[in-house]
Amino acid sequence: MPTDLNIEWTEAIEANVRYFRNPLWLKSYFDHVHRDAGFRERWIAAAGVLDDRIVVDVGCGPGNVFATLGGRPRRLIGIDVASEALEHARQLGYDPLLADAQNMPLSSGIADLVIVNASLHHCNDMSAALKEAARLVAPGGLLVTDHDPQLSAWNFKGPGKWLWDLRLRLYHWAKIGFHASLEEQSVALASEIHHRPGDGVTRHFFESTLRPLGFDVEIFPHNHRLGANVLHGGWGKADFKYRLGQRLSSIEPDAPEAALSLMCRARRRLPGESPLDRQDVEAVI
Question: Strands 261-268 and 215-222, how do they pair?
Fold first, then answer.
């Protein structure tokens, strides 16, 4: 497997590797995460079908995105730090590359589509990872990110923060998802270094990073439930537990700022193309 020998092995990267080294955790993640119909509909609406395109999936894990979207890409490159996850992705059709998303040994402008799903918040430097992903996009190509926590939605304070801290014990007691095992819970949380109160992504983060690099940027907040309607102004309704924590933190749960995740679709302009302002972008949707 092609491997970048210059990876800086931080605690977060080590946690990601350790998580996917466990075959039971890997299988559970692949079988249940980002595999629903709403995810597929939302991504096809945002990114289009993968057929005949050169696609780079940054932080691909075991290959969940391609397994859900399907298609016949001309080439599909999967980048991750976990060799076990990459081997699983290879069996699905990925060309695996073991490398850090913050410093990828690939030429600039090679991809028609760069996918970054649920990956930025695992990177020590989210800005560096986003810029690296953008560097790979060819003129006229797309960069699509999703499932990174919106800072304003998770900025729990006071009683809401107390409830957030208590959730780990409650989830473990109820055997919910990766919280069923204390070891799995600990490793998963250690890898999600920007998924905590007071941290996460914002509209400004995406726009201020990507617009100077020649991208037109669209941001779509959502609560993980809706499909293509997210791209037309819908964001859905979060589960009660999140809404309760938000209310206890003086966050209005029905506002777009309370949507749990931000999807970003950014198109690299062709040479000589003028940037679109936000009103122009909304008119195109």
Answer: antiparallel
As for how many domains the chain has, the answer is 1
pLDDT digits (tens, 9 = 90+) for 28-67: 999 999 999 999 999 999 999 999 999 999 999 999 999 9
C-alpha–C-alpha distance, residues 194 and 149, integer Å = 8
Beta bridge mates, 96: 78
**CATH number reported for the structural domain that contains residue 132 in this entry:** 3.40.50.150
Is residue 203 in a domain? Answer: yes
Strands 215-222 and 75-80 turn out to be: unpaired
- For 164-191, give the DSSP string: HHHHHHHHHHHT-GGGGSHHHHHHHHHH
Kindly report whether the global pTM for this prediction surpasses the value 0.90.
yes
Q: Is residue 197 part of a domain?
A: yes
Q: What is the pLDDT of residues 173-190, one digit of tens each?
A: 555 555 567 788 789 889
In a domain, 3, yes or no: no
